Amino acid sequence: MTDMSGNEYYDCLAGAGTLALGHNHPQVIAAIEDALDADRPLHTLDISTPAKERFVDSLFESLPDEFSDQAKIQFCSPAGTDAVEAALKLVKTATGNRSVLAFQGGYHGMTNGALSLMGDTDAKESIPGLMSDVHHLPFPYDYRCPFGVGGTEGHRIASDYVENLLTDGESGVTDPAGMILEPVQGEGGTIPAPDGWLQEIRRITRKHDIPLILDEIQAGLGRTGELYAFEHADIVPDVLTLSKAIGGGLPLAAVVYDENLDVWEPGTHAGTFRGNQLAMVAGEVTIDYILEHDLDDHATEVGSRLRDHLETTAEQFDAVGEVRGRGLMQGVEFVNSAADWQGAGPHAPDGEFAEAVQAACFDRGLIIELGGRDSATARFLPPLVVSEGQVDDIAAIFHEAVAAVAGTDTDPAEVAV
């Protein structure tokens, strides 16, 4: 990416993962130009068009047959948070229940219902009247295991906790309308859910007839090394929320769900921009390109290369607490061993250090995002077309930035300035 002053950057934020093929991919641009040249309508609400039909066909082709063969699709207004709102309404309508199970560390958007599901309490404290009846469950976060053990034992306890909550008549939790989770928590700090835990959660929700909503708004469409992150665990959801990459860089959101939940009346949920034709054109090309070029496999390969580089950096600097992620969704958590930390985990998250590293990266031509506890995790979401050579450059810049911040005697916040 080139800025207004002519400075060039590697963009490892990429629209929060929206730009799966990078900025202005020629095939995406050509498809948009062709649609404009053909004088097609730009906005059609629910009217079927060739562009919409092709998009749905491509999207369903990218999904496992076990899911897509009995799935319906609901187009929403354009943001991922709109898909989450639609999913909540869907499962509440289908079950007649109102409580929802969510997870600590989760992020599902900034509208009222989606914000209520968020794990970050700071983001919610100033908002009055958030949706009630949301129960936040422990997420298996090995580095800061809520049960203090981590690993297989940690996620076994986590799933046992959920099952006990659902069977205990004194748990205080009424029959839930659904459970929502991210197979890889993004804004929460790039935390992948263990495959075994996801399999247990799927078993538990099926046993108790609780619709399982998987939020793949950021992780979906090849980013984690599978077309969808839930495929790592060989499960399928009842409801899948999608946005970001499916629009090819343009605003588009959708909910794909099991037909058994399709009990709401036509028009129960709508959104003005649900018929965004240019987004469907761009999305179709993006999905087809990812499938044709096996970019999910590419994400595994170059993601492993990036991970190796980041692990090398971690070995050299005590400020790095953990490197984690899947495919081209990687995170580096920074810690401060001298700071007080009352939670689980060996050291306090160091948001100041992370912010300084982010600034040092920017000065050197690399754009990264921060997330997680205390915004202490550097997050990498490069386009899926990133090459091995570019990954090497990205990792070298990051390493240099960490070294620059770690080697200074000044306050990290001063380096960030």
TrEMBL record:
CDD domains in the record: OAT_like
Molecular function GO labels: pyridoxal phosphate binding; transaminase activity
Record key words, sorted: Aminotransferase, Pyridoxal phosphate, Pyruvate, Transferase
Cofactor section: pyridoxal 5'-phosphate
InterPro entries per record: Aminotrans_3, Aminotrans_3_PPA_site, Dat, PyrdxlP-dep_Trfase, PyrdxlP-dep_Trfase_major, PyrdxlP-dep_Trfase_small
NCBIfam families found in the cross-reference section: dat
Family named by the database record: Belongs to the class-III pyridoxal-phosphate-dependent aminotransferase family.
Record's protein name: Diaminobutyrate--pyruvate aminotransferase
Organism: Natrialba chahannaoensis JCM 10990
The organism's taxonomic lineage, starting at the top: Archaea, Methanobacteriati, Methanobacteriota, Stenosarchaea group, Halobacteria
